[in-house]
Amino acid sequence: MIMQKRVRRRKREQPKDAVECLVDCVCNFLGLAKHKIFWRQFTKFAIAGVFNTVIDWSLFYVLTGFTGLNPLIANVISYTVAMIYNFFASTRFVFRTTKQKTQRRLFAEFAVQNACGFLISEGLLYVLIERMGLHGMLSKMIATGVVMIFDFVSRKLILEDRPKHRKSCKSKV
Question: Does 80 reside within a domain?
């Protein structure tokens, strides 16, 4: 008697907007079709991140360059304003947010995650500016790159549902 194995097919996700259509075309061209979902999400994260960075850096530049505010204090202000924008971009554009949490809880977890990213950013700025003598904007660029990696991974864990159990695809013969 031959045992038949059950194969669960992944629900094919159709592109929902121009970004997803473009990413799908590039993935198909490069032979990355089975990773489309990841690249769609990462591309949207990058787009939202560009806007977040423009808000953060512009405000940081204005506060330090035109008002003479201390870079560490300016970073608190610019990072907070950018974080509020990024919450809305992340929950509406980038990640499929879990339905098991209220918006208030999601924002609280997002704020804690951002506080961790902020502490990383502040620590790097302190070391790069105060200890190593680098320019404020160069230090801000370096800190942003480091925190970006932390943000993508931690936001994915916080905002999205995770499967509770993954079933093995191996069949017993």
Answer: yes
